[in-house]
Amino acid sequence: MNNTFYFLRHGQTKKDSNIPISKWILSDKGESQAKKLAKEGVFNNAEIIFSSTEEKAYQTAKPIADKLGKEIIQLEEISELNRDKGGFMEPETYEDSVKDCLQHLDKSINNWETANQALERFSRKIEEVDKEYDDKKILVVGHGFTINLYFAKLLGILDTAYERFRANDYADWGIVKNYQVVKDIAKS
After folding, report:
1. Pairing of the two strands 4-9 and 173-177
2. What is the pLDDT of residue 187?
3. Domains delineated in the chain
4. CA distance readout (Å), 10 to 71, 122, 156
5. Over the chain, what is the mean pLDDT?
6. Average pLDDT of 83-99?
7. Could you give the C-alpha distances from 142 to 60, 80, 90, 96, in angstroms and in order?
8. Which pLDDT score, from 0 to 100, does residue 122 have?
9. Helices marked H in 2-90 — which ranges?
10. Residues 162, 98: contact at Cβ < 8 Å?
11. Parallel, antiparallel, or unpaired for β 25-26 and 72-75?
12. CA 148 to CA 152: how far, in whole Å?
């Protein structure tokens, strides 16, 4: 991996119990977060921009791509851990499910994709992207579960995936180069 990867968690979402989680969009605050990142120029050196196929990730990448005059390449494989079959949950039930999912990586919680399945899908696609490009600065706009799992894998601390997930928020970002975490997405 001689490319530099910037992993950006999408902005805050607008929760809607009437539609699947994968179809949620950014809230007003999430849109502001995306615009602020573009304005601040945090990713001005990005040469290639990928986002998951989920609208909230695309919406987060759009202001950055517009500012840089870049296209956004959407990749299904970097989408979030699939939770659509589990349906909408109240906040406390959802938090318990997130904890269970990230502490039992091979267990399907509420008919969700397992954490290990999501991590394998995500990791494989990042490796493919890394082989396709040479010495590029690549922005990947994705999701809390998959990005945190990926960073935990690289750091060799998958057993702390839940704590890491809780240690960052919407629109947080980190950097990976040569499969080494240069800037952690999780706040310590």
Report:
1. antiparallel
2. 80
3. 4-183 (3.40.50.1240)
4. 17, 16, 24
5. 95
6. 86
7. 9, 7, 23, 22
8. 98
9. 28-40, 55-68
10. yes
11. unpaired
12. 6
